[in-house]
């Protein structure tokens, strides 16, 4: 083997084992917060008879709090990803508020991003949900917001809502 190929082989093997050995340690990539998750549910929603859609993931932690992450899409061009927010579940009643940065890649340059706030209210029972939403945008050139109705179905998991 030529010296340069030998060095490349040693580096490749070292990187390969490093990824697996380091990746297998309990502290890598997972926080105490991740380890405290007791149950997770994924929900798919549709808004305004198909004009919008959403994907929500609820995670119930060992202290009883519920976190949320997901994305709301409207008119197939405005995407609103979120990774945190306030969630209140009381029996079948659901209320959550999330914020993030919306993106409309079909808008003119300089008008493609806007901060947003999404408020969801409704009820979830037996893996189905219905309710209302309001989303507001704050950037110049964006519409002030939308509101309407949504329906949802649990697609995975159990133990957070019911």
Any descriptors?
single chain, 162 residues, Lipocalin, 2 domains, 9 strands, 15% helix, disordered N terminus
Describe the structure.
- By secondary structure, the protein is α+β, with helices and mostly antiparallel strands.
- The chain has two domains: 30 residues; 127 residues, Lipocalin.
- The protein is 15% helix and 55% strand.
- The chain contains two helices and nine strands, in the order ααβββββββββ.
- Strand 3 and strand 4 form a beta hairpin.
- The longest helix has 21 residues.
- The radius of gyration is 21 Å and the shape is globular.
- The N terminus is likely disordered.
Summarize the entry for a quick read:
The protein is of the alpha+beta class and 162 residues long. It has two helices and nine strands, in the order ααβββββββββ. It has helices at residues 3-23, 32-35; strands at residues 37-47, 52-61, 66-74, 78-82, 85-90, 93-104, 113-125, 128-137, 145-157.
What's the helix and strand layout?
Blueprint: H1 3-23, H2 32-35, E1 37-47, E2 52-61, E3 66-74, E4 78-82, E5 85-90, E6 93-104, E7 113-125, E8 128-137, E9 145-157
Rounded to an integer in angstroms, the radius of gyration calculated over CA atoms is: 21 Å
Order of helices and strands: HHEEEEEEEEE
User: Structural class, from helix and strand content?
Assistant: alpha+beta
The major β-sheet equals: 8 strands, antiparallel, barrel
Average pLDDT level: 81
Give a count of the beta strands, DSSP E runs of length 2 or more: 9
Tally of individual helices: 2
How helical, in percent, are the residues?
Answer: 10-25%
- Side-by-side strand order of the widest sheet: 1-2-3-4-6-7-8-9
Low-confidence stretches: 1-32
Label the CATH architecture of the largest domain.
Beta Barrel
